[in-house]
Amino acid sequence: MDGSVEEILLRYGARWKPRRITAVVSKNAFSGSNVWCVESEAGLAALRRWPNHVPRDRVEGIHRLLRGLDEASFLLHPSPIADTHGTTCCAIAGSRWELCTWRLGEPERGNAISDARLDAALRALAHFHEVGERLPLSSGEQWLAPRSVLHARREGERVACPALERRRREYTRLHQVLRQPPVVVDEDCRDLARRTLEQLRRLDTSMRRLLGEEASIVPALVLRDIHREHVLFAGDEVSGIIDFGAVGIDSVACDLARLVGSLVPDQPERWRSAITAYRQVRSIDDETVRLAWRLDITGTLIATLRWREWLAIERRAFADREAALVRWQRLLDRVSGWETEPIGT
């Protein structure tokens, strides 16, 4: 175990002296964070070491947001715990750390989520968006979004969808990168690399059409990385939503795309059921629903292309290479099942 773990816990006083520390390993986690479950006299907590590229002001901003959710009685999020100096973001050995309350429950493990759990997940997401609308965010919170987008959120003005703009830029970049074949491809990803390029060529026209359509949105507080591993259940009820590291300001369609796409991919009837459940809590128009579908489709292909770049071109090292290859394979299998024109109808 990293000696920094016990050292950082000393900053939280005797109540958080660990009785047991367990590393939390997820085969779907590739963000670079490390998480431990801490058992102590005070109870259970999640100790997280943030990736070095995440700036301190963002971590502290996330903690302000979580405290705002505390005050709004959202109840499903982890809450940051202050050390003996009143700080929730601690620095040691060049890394930033946090200790948060532990959310009980387990993510959906089955291939086919039940209707009850699907409905509960979408209602919980809608509740988060509803609470998020009421949280005051100043123009100084630029770790969340540019000042102009924060202003638009405050005034209820429409802006071009930031998520769609990011996808356009990333697709253009990846298209340029992947046009050149890698000099060396490791044996375990050679077939995946070849098939990924085949799908890029097959779906390119449809992708450009989907990315080219304009979309104006009312900016909202969104999680941006809410997927099946980040929604916890106790029975059929949601007991927690974890990992707020990607939170930002964008369309609620971002979260719908990420969550519904991970729970019921390419299942139109269940997509409609998920949207119905969401609308039981919060109203959204059909334009937002279509944008969610577009973001799911375009995001899935872009993620597939990105894995080719990481593993076949950059040859990045991952703590669990096999899990990385499985993630790439699953994305590619999904993309391979789409019709060429139009996708996903």
From TrEMBL:
UniProt key word Transferase: yes
Gene Ontology molecular function: kinase activity
Kinase recorded as keyword: yes
Ranges for domain Aminoglycoside phosphotransferase: 31-277
Keywords: Kinase, Transferase
SUPFAM superfamilies tied to this protein: Protein kinase-like (PK-like)
Name of the protein described by the UniProt record: Homoserine kinase
Species whose genome carries this gene: Kolteria novifilia
